[in-house]
């Protein structure tokens, strides 16, 4: 079985780990979000690709969910001693090595997809990890300034430094319109038996991947069933601040609104209650309303069982099952539910 997963960082990585446990024989391709990528200290950092690689390769800091286990921070301390920032982004010594190798290979002319493949030769994640694009795409967030104006900041500055505490007015995947899907991305989607949208951030993870021209269309037109799992449980993100970026694209923080935002396959992509007209107009990743929807099936958590009917009324088959990725077994059970739903909706 060939399974394609559009993955962000922690939510995508943990789901992939459960999926691997559920179907060890499957050929899994993870298409990774690179909109979070940032250049720091002259190095190219790809947080979401690395979270997937470390999580599946056994190198992740489990409690934190990102970065390396057994990390030390000497380089960061030395940079601080020189007064060289930023200090708000956590790069440990072991992690630095990954970014040095990556930057060196990119400098030598290798595309990011080839570099990722090379890094994965060490980590052996057990899935084929492909960045969504070899081209530079950088998610920027339009925020209010103190003097009543607006400015765009890098997603990492908004998320990590500002902790999403200032209001996001729009989310812009800068460069996405000119970006091409990395080699293998469209082919993997077209050849897939199942396409899964894991419980990753619908706006700045999955939304960014879908903003690369060709990817949304490939998913919408895939022969395979497309099934998603809600990252929103009980009207809140399970972790992180997805509610803030959902608000920026005019989508309520509910499992049903996220399903509507992805839209039913064959129908126009929906938007949540509140509509795409509020603030989301400038957001190329929010689904324009003219493109097709994506979902055949949607899983919500059991605490959200009351919305199943509402989601199904939109033409999306919906089930309520436990969606908390507390350990590999519970996550594998989620993956099996997603695959079972995919079989149910297979055309
Ligand atoms: P990031 O790039 O590290 O932010 O990770 P992703 O975009 O892949 O995933 C972030 C999303 O994962 C957040 O919106 C969380 O709500 C969601 N998430 C994290 N843990 C869980 C979980 O155990 N269950 C569910 N359903 N969602 C989760
Ligand atoms: Ca991310």
TrEMBL record:
Keywords: Magnesium, Transferase. One of its GO terms (molecular function) is LPPG:FO 2-phospho-L-lactate transferase activity. InterPro entries: CofD (IPR002882), CofD-like_dom_sf (IPR038136), FbiA/CofD (IPR010115). This is 2-phospho-L-lactate transferase.
């Amino acid at each position: 079985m060939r399974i394609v997963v559009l993955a962000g960082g922690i939510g995508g990585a943990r789901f992939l780990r459960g999926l691997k446990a559920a179907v060890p024989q499957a050929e899994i391709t993870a298409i990774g979000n690179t909109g979070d990528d940032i250049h720091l200290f002259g190095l190219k950092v790809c947080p979401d690709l690395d979270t997937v690689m470390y999580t599946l390769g056994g190198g992740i800091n489990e409690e934190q969910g990102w970065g390396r286990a057994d990390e030390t921070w000497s380089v960061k301390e030395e940079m601080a001693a020189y007064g060289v920032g930023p200090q708000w982004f956590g790069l440990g010594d072991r992690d630095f090595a990954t970014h040095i190798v990556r930057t060196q290979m990119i400098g030598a002319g290798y595309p990011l997809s080839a570099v990722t493949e090379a890094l994965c030769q060490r980590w052996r994640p057990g899935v084929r990890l492909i960045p969504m694009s070899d081209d530079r795409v950088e998610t920027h967030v339009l925020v209010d300034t103190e003097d009543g104006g607006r400015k765009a900041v890098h997603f990492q500055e908004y998320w990590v430094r500002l902790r999403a505490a200032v209001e996001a007015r729009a989310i812009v995947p800068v460069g996405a319109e000119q970006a091409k899907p990395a080699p293998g991305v469209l082919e993997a989607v077209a050849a897939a038996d199942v396409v899964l949208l894991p419980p990753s951030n619908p706006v700045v993870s999955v939304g960014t991947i879908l903003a690369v021209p060709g990817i949304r269309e490939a998913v919408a037109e895939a022969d395979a069933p497309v099934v998603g799992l809600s990252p929103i449980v009980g009207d809140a993100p399970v972790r992180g601040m997805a509610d803030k970026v959902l608000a920026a694209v005019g989508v309520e923080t509910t499992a049903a609104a996220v399903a509507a935002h992805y839209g039913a396959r064959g129908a126009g992509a929906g938007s949540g209650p509140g509509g795409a007209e509020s603030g989301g107009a400038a957001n190329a990743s929010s689904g324009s309303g003219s493109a097709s929807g994506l979902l055949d099936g949607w899983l919500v958590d059991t605490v959200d069982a009351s919305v199943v009917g509402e989601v199904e009324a939109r033409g999306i088959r919906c089930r309520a099952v436990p969606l908390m990725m507390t350990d590999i077994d519970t996550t594998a059970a989620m993956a099996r539910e997603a695959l079972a739903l995919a079989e149910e909706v297979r055309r």
